[in-house]
Amino acid sequence: MLGTGHALALRGLTKRYGSFTAVDSVSLKVERGEFLTLLGPSGSGKTTILMCIAGFVAPTEGAVLLDGQDITPLPPERRDFGMVFQGYALFPHMTVAENVAFPLRVRKLGAADRDAKVRAALDLVQLSGFAERLPRQLSGGQQQRVALARALVFDPALLLLDEPLSALDKKLRAELQEELKVLHRRVGRTFVNVTHDQEEALSLSDRVAILNHGKLVQEGAPAHLYEHPRTRFVADFLGKSNFLHGEVRESVPGGFVIGAGPTRILQAVAENHRPAHGSRVLLSLRPEKIALLAEEDAADNVVMGRIAAWSYLGAGYTLVVETPDFGALRVALPTWQAPIAPSEGLAVRLGWSSTASVPVVEDAA
Ligand code: ATP
């Protein structure tokens, strides 16, 4: 079952329903053996893209290419892709082994080959001892693993996953996420996954493509996207962020200074990304990049404020700190780093480095 996987490319993929554009000129490459996740809010076009890749939806314009070959006109059965959906879609009257064997029967494989492949697929998802059970005798996580085995058993060119974990409870979802990651490495196939769960996208994928209103807004490795969001939407959708508005007052080596009221904020920037003097800029600042400073502590940026609200989350605290120039700032502190017990109304000094925040573009309305 080991293989090198296939490369997928979308070229100007567009799907219109009447005057409504569900997918708007999406171009994207998925490398051989890569785990790519399409991430976006509800209605952003993720499933439509997956269905165009699978061949169930015909794009209005654009093309789907597999290893450079245009497969847009091919019907789903000629594409030979494996699919796993949110609802496991197992045949309830068939045993686990019969469910997994089904795609091989359709492909008219001989019994000996079929049995060997079913065994290997069940081994792969660690369900060897469950071959004779019926789906209703399995937990949700086990059922989803059977669905994975069934999708992989015929050695598909691509595995397409549509919200495969969203029907499971939180703990089971986390477990299956880990398993899916290991499985991906083991089979060395190209996986394309759809989710609206940002944590799942970050933890599972080699690369994430973020969609909004049918458009691809940014793609990249999870850490790159999280650390370098290009727009406010990406910063806000992928994790939590504070947004600081200000006007560029001064250029300094390696950065610039913005002012918001009397407060000056130092922002690091690459030389070729310097904004014009006097222009309005927007900075994204992650809550976990803000520290609570003691009186003697220094930082590139120091802002005074008062705790307006706080919550204890076990591993850490979340504070909402009201500041005169930037409004409410959300601060996330690991419990062991919290120098004080938070209380409402408490005056605090917030500090962050000039490299902690990133300039982002305000999305078009
Ligand atoms: P979700 O996370 O809710 O599944 P999604 O990002 O997968 O959302 P899609 O299912 O791809 O979104 O839908 C994108 C848009 O296209 C939605 O506004 C949806 O209503 C619309 N749409 C999808 N299928 C059709 C159809 N057959 N006819 C008309 N509009 C459609």
Description:
The protein is an alpha+beta fold. Helices cover 24% and strands 36% of the residues. A six-stranded mixed beta sheet has the order 6-7-8-3-9-10, sandwiched between helices. Strands 13-12-11-14-20 form a five-stranded antiparallel beta sheet. It has a five-stranded antiparallel beta sheet with strand order 15-19-16-17-18, with no helix packed on it. The protein is elongated and about 75 Å long. The mean pLDDT is 91. Bound molecules: adenosine-5'-triphosphate. The site of adenosine-5'-triphosphate has 12 residues, from strand 2 and helix 1. It comes from Falsiroseomonas stagni DSM 19981. Pfam families: ABC_tran, TOBE_2.
Task: Summarize the topology.
Layout: E1 8-17, E2 20-30, E3 35-39, H1 46-54, E4 61-66, E5 69-70, H2 76-79, E6 82-84, H3 96-106, H4 111-124, H5 140-152, E7 158-162, H6 170-187, E8 190-195, H7 198-204, E9 207-212, E10 215-220, H8 222-227, H9 232-237, E11 242-252, E12 255-260, E13 263-268, E14 280-285, E15 291-293, E16 301-312, E17 316-323, E18 327-334, E19 347-352, E20 357-360
Parallel strand pairs: 3-8, 3-9, 6-7, 7-8
Antiparallel strand pairs: 1-2, 1-4, 4-5, 9-10, 11-12, 11-14, 12-13, 14-20, 15-19, 16-17, 16-19, 17-18
Bound molecules: adenosine-5'-triphosphate.
